[in-house]
Backbone:
């Protein structure tokens, strides 16, 4: 009788333990929370927002908001928008603010201000293999690929794609690309 009770208990616990282990694996390997540090992604993201990012089977694409490892010299990851990926030709007109990728003018409804000034590149520029060109949505103050200290981003430094703002609750939203 006692052995039967243990067997029944084990049968109930087995799926619960498996689900718990699967949840831990997802949290550790597929989902991560990042804190937005600074106003460079305003108005899309606010300073102090908590953002969930996913990285399982992810390849960066233009328009995606990504978290970027800044290496050991920096405290927090960068959060920027992918503008161009490997093999794409990028041109930024620093007088008009136009951003053109592969000959197509980007419709940047998400930016706070146009991309005027602060461009230290010779355009047009073809993005090298394995690299990304990223910019913040608040272009006038964002430190991003236009800045020599940041430059192009290696795809291996991408921590994941920002999916949803989870905190503070009044800022909660899904991040469309």
Residues:
């Amino acid at each position: 009788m006692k052995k039967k009770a243990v067997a029944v208990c084990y049968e109930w616990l087995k799926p619960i333990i498996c689900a718990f282990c699967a949840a831990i694996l997802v949290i550790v390997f597929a989902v991560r929370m990042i804190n937005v540090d600074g106003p460079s992604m305003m108005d899309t993201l606010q300073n102090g927002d908590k953002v969930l990012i996913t990285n399982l089977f992810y390849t960066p694409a233009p328009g995606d908001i990504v978290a970027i490892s800044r290496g050991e010299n920096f405290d927090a990851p960068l959060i920027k928008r992918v503008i161009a990926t490997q093999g794409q030709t990028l041109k930024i007109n620093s007088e008009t603010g136009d951003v053109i990728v592969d000959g197509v003018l980007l419709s940047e409804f998400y930016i706070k201000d146009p991309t005027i000034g602060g461009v230290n590149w010779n355009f047009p520029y073809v993005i090298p293999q394995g690299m990304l060109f990223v910019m913040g949505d608040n272009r006038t103050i964002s430190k991003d690929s236009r800045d020599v200290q940041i430059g192009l981003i290696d795809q291996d430094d991408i921590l994941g794609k920002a999916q949803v703002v989870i905190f503070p609750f009044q800022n909660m939203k899904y991040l469309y690309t």
Observations:
- Residues 35-174 form a domain with the Umud Fragment, subunit A fold (CATH 2.10.109.10).
- The chain has one domain: 35-174.
- The CA atoms of residues 90 and 101 lie 5 Å apart.
- The first helix runs from residue 2 to 29.
